[in-house]
Fold:
Amino acid sequence: MDALRTARALDAAIASLGPWCAAHGVDAGLVERGFLQVSAAPSQDDAWLESTEACARVGEGERWRAQSSAEVATRARSPVFRGGAFMPGAATVQPAYLVRGLRRVALEQGIVIHERTTATLPDDPARRHGAYWGRGPIPIATTSAEGSGVLAAGEVVVATNAWAAGWRPVAGRLITWSSYVVLTEPIPDRLAEIGWIGGEGIADARFTLHYARTTADGRIALGGGGGKAGWGGRIGRAFTHDDRSARRAAEGLRRWFPSLADVRIEDAWGGPIDITDDHRPWFGTRPGGRIHHGLGYSGNGVGPAILGGRILAALATGRARDDEDASLPIVGDRATPRGFPPEPLRGLGARIFREAMVHREQAEEAGREPSRAIRAVTRVPRRLGFHLGPE
Structure:
């Protein structure tokens, strides 16, 4: 079963991170204590049920199992947490530490990294929709503070996450949204009071979800997906300097743990996520066979990117036919996401839908019935065939 193969490949990728860090002396803040999804409102109850039942049917029930409200409370106590589901094979990591470790190891192995450099693929007259039919090295024009030049590449991998929304060959198959994180002051004693001392990652079951983890020095980092939608593939200040979206994340933290209302929030930041029509990542090769891509991580890139790197390496080195990971259903033409409407409909529609989802879920969490108009707007993507939002 393709879905089971993919899940197992992702599990193996996550399990490989610890040994890799140990072998290369990288302290990435890895905590392998699992992941807890919770219902934080009646509308979120049993959101995981289809998945947990599917795991049980294929004999993998221990990988993703439902939790009662009492079981949830043994991991973290909140007046709004209800039932949940637990994934023991998950982990949390400090992504900046990991990236810095990856950079160091790459440099030690002789890889040249051109930071803060703009790279432009060639404008080949025969190139259509990302195809490159020319022979010989592919010339890539580069510009940086030090000057401009040309790199020659036999194969090219485009792995820029949300920034790929500005690359014409794939732009129509991505939408971008911002997500913001708030960070508390160190509060180890207060974490003990609410029982969140196991190091689990926690997320609720909203579409514009809240996701959180604790840190080694006893802080809470909580993010919220209630940010703004992008426009035309541009990644601007709305993704990094949006106070309103940061406040929404802070409100999520206060709602989860009202006993921490006096705890100081010391930092906040935001960034873009790239989303396909079904929330699955997409790896493939453009026509011409020499330009490869990986994108559409939907904010879950740290774990899947390990698997994605293996897939892209197989594609770029010609090993794809004999590579198990490259045969997964997230690779190739069959994995191509459905295209979104062109601009301005894509950006405008995404913004309207996103705001409607935020208002709907805020109302549901407050025990109010969302208006008919809000409910109707949030159902539009599903009615158009996209796997986004409620039925």
Summary: The chain is about 30% helix and 20% strand. The CA atoms of residues 158 and 293 lie 5 Å apart. Residues 114-173+279-335 form one domain.
